[in-house]
Every structure is written in C-alpha cells, then in structure tokens.
C-alpha cells in the first residue's frame, strides 16, 4: 500500500427537516402509511407546477455558510433525467452547473482541511420495497422531500479520514439544526468515490463509486475493501473498470452494480417550470445573523473560558445538546455557590458527563436526548459532592438512581439515608474496630508495608456502607496506625 496514493471523494445527501416538501405542501413526516403524503405535484400529475419552499433555500444558505462556501446570488434548477420506478416524473429537479453553494471546506479533527466542491438543492425520489421473489412495491411519501447534496473535493486520503469527515459533517449539520441526520430513516445518505494512483503521481487512477452505505462504519469498511481490491487488480496486470458498486455489509465485500457504459446520461437542462433562484445581500445577511455557534467556535470557548483540555472539549462538542447541557450544569452549580472555582467545577462536570452519563447512555444504546436528568439536578449532585454531603462512591449510587428514576439527588439521599458521615468521633469507632479485627495488617504496616493502608480504608468504607468521608478516614487511620 506504501506504493500508492489513495484518492477519496464523498457525496452526502442530507434530508432537510422542513415540515413540507420542496415543491408542494405535502408532509415530510417519516413513518406514515405508504403513499399518504402525496399530491398531484409530487406524483407528477399532468398540468401541475412546482412552487419552491423558501425554508429550503434558507437552510441551504445556512449549510453553505457553515461549510465556508461562497453563496451564489444566482443559481439555477435543472432537470436530471433518468427512469426508475420510484421517480414519477422520470426526472429529478436538482441543480447542476450553477448550484447555490460552492468552494467551501470543512476541518477534520486533526486540522486537515477538506475542500467542498458544491452543496446544492434537490428533491428526493420515492422508496422501493422489495418483496420475496420478483415483486416490488413503491412508496411515494419521500418523493419531493428536500435534500442538500454536499460533494467533497478528492482530498480524503484514507478510510479513517472519510469516517472523521462524516462525523464532522454530521456534527455541523446538527448544530445548524437543518436535519436530524438519522441514517436509519434515510436523513443522511453517502456515496463514496475511490481511486488509487502511484505514489506522487499527478494523474488520478480510474475510480469506482460505492453505494448502499447505511453507516459511517460501512463507508470506512467498504473503502478499505475497495483499496485492497484496486491494488490487487493493478498488481495482477489488469485495469480497474469505472463502475458503480454496492456494499454487501454481511459479506464484507463490494459487488458490481453497473459499468460506465451502462451508466445513465442524465441530459441535464434548466428546469422550465422554475425561475432562476436570485438572492440579495439582505437575505444572506439575515441568515448569517441567525447562525448558531458552530463546533469549532464551541471548542475554542470550552478551552479558553472553561479551561478544558482539547480532548475533553472535543468529547463535549460532539453533540450540540451535550455541550449546551454541560454549560447549563456549570451555570447551575455556580448559582448554588458563586465562590466555587469555575474551572474546577467545569472539569468535574466534564468528567461526570463523559464517563458516567455517556458511558451509561452508550451501554443502553441511547442518545443524549434520551437523558432525563435535568441540568439543575445534575448540578445539585455535584454540589453535594463538593460540600462533602456525599462521597464519590455514594455519588455514583445517587447518579444511577437519578438516571433510572428521574428523582432529585435530595430525594434519593433522604430515601436511602446516604448522607456522608463527617463526624470524627463516629468514624474513629469504625477505624478502631477495623484495626482490632486486622492485627496482621497492623503488623504489616509497622513493618513498612504501607500499601496495606488501602485495604484497611476499604474495610472501613465497607462497614460504613461507603458513607464515611474518605479524607477523614485516611487521616484518622494513619494517625492510629502511627500511634501503635
């Protein structure tokens, strides 16, 4: 593989979360009964005309700005002509040589810049449902749902970079609030183009396109397979055929779908039923004013204002709702005690979210949106840890109960009698009891085996059911051992 350069470009279709379709008033709701969200416009009945949904244009401008693109004040809709059973017009209204957004870029996690050739508006096709045997059914509910197609430059040089690009792109789109990017429901779909060339060569090799990619992992795995297949074909003295291939996730291979000779000639021409899309400065400026803080801006704020590490900050900005939740929790804690150090509190909150909450959600195969713990209750939990009302061990027990029951930490602590023991005399009783029951451990400590103190602390915490203040336990235990 060291002999070759890898050249990858990705085409990503994003379904926009408008309430109605791009050229008619039909609902875009997912999961309704087949062929219920249809009308004469989206099913291409004779004599009907499309009317452009303004929100689609607003969202397209927002995506273009987020991708650092130039927003073209004049763009043109075109007919992309092909026949397929789920395309009732026998053409798709798209944009071709004059798209709304061009010449942008997105940064990968390592700072590498991946160019964006274009981001254009188009309508979706329907969905074929294949039955056993040779029969298929068609659902036109999705026909006319608005899409943004984002086409990258061939700047991606490995499957892992492709994965990172998709993660960053999905993150950006969700921050913009224009799509839920749910791959299971078809809101985000990706096709990958791959070729290889001799190391350092300026001439690109013959490319293949991979379709049927239903996850980011599938994109990564299919590209790994195709790279190895290309190398094997070339080193056997054969030539790569330019073709479209499908990814078989179960078998872990790509299979040929159609060759270039069989590919459609789309015969683009300007859509005669739609005027050119003309934008003015005021329209674009109004969208700019409505732009949210984007991931890179959030990252800078977390590192500079909250003093988080690059790693911790990157974990939090993966989801817009997660970083907003983090900031709300920190704010609630500081409202409880304004004398607390913001940077110390921020690190605590970051750790609890990345380790405890995300760990629990991942284990349960849930998303951050499924979390039911309010920011106010999470803040109170960490506040109670800071003022030594509960210990760290008890804190985890309280968190688990909060996660499952949505009760407040105060309720749980009261119900389960979990308040931390901070009375020195009460803790001293447990210390003496443990020392009396473990004379050998005392002898080992006196003989220089100081690590035994960890065992003795564990015994004390066990007897107090984790409620003793760990700092006091260590302090009193060491004092008693040294005095023997």
Record keyword descriptors for this entry.
alpha+beta; 16 strands; 484 residues; 3-stranded antiparallel beta sheet; 9-stranded mixed beta sheet
Verbal overview:
This protein has 15 helices and 16 strands. By secondary structure, it is an alpha+beta fold. A nine-stranded mixed sheet has the order 2-6-7-10-1-11-12-13-14, covered by helices on one side. The protein has a three-stranded antiparallel sheet with strand order 5-4-15, with no helix packed on it. A hairpin with a 5-residue loop joins β8 (127-130) and β9. The radius of gyration is 30 Å and the shape is elongated.
Provide the structure class: alpha+beta
Q: What is the helix tally?
A: 15
Envelope shape: elongated
SS elements, strand count: 16
Low-confidence stretches: none
Give the helix proportion (percent range): 40-55%
**Beta-strand content estimate:** 15-25%
- Rounded to the nearest angstrom, the distance between the terminal CA atoms is 68 Å
- Overall pLDDT score: 92
Main beta sheet strand tally, sense and closure: 9 strands, mixed
Radius of gyration: 30 Å
Strand arrangement, major sheet: 2-6-7-10-1-11-12-13-14
